[in-house]
Amino acid sequence: MWTCVPVYLWVFHKETRTVEQPAKRNEKGYRIGDFHHRARLTDHEVELFRQLVGSMPLRELALKFDISESQASKIARHIQR
Predict the structure, then answer these.
(1) Per-10-residue mean pLDDT for the chain, 81 residues long?
(2) What does 12-77 look like in DSSP terms, one character per residue?
(3) pTM for this structure?
(4) Rg (Cα) of the chain, in Å, rounded?
């Protein structure tokens, strides 16, 4: 039996792909973290990235995580996630 769930209620997470889990939102109501539709990294990957910042050059980390060098710099300086 099929159940009908409106599309606007669907919240997809990159790893778990659950519908029940509500999206994280900031004070303006915008999606943040790995729930944002343009997020390239999960929250866990961002924390791992920040732990590795001192151990290898940012250029190398950016290649490993498949992000640009400028984004790697912003993540390392806690400007963006």
Answers:
(1) 49 53 76 72 87 91 91 89 73
(2) --TTT--SSSPPPB-TTS-B-GGGSTT--S-HHHHHHHHHHTTTS-HHHHHHHHT--HHHHHHHHT
(3) 0.62
(4) 16
Tokens matching residue 73:
């710099």
Of 23, 18, 15, 14, the closest CA to residue 5 belongs to 18
Separation CA 38–CA 14 (nearest Å): 11
End-to-end CA distance of the chain: 41
Q: What per-residue confidence (pLDDT) applies to 41?
A: 83
Closest CA to 12 of 36, 30, 32: 36
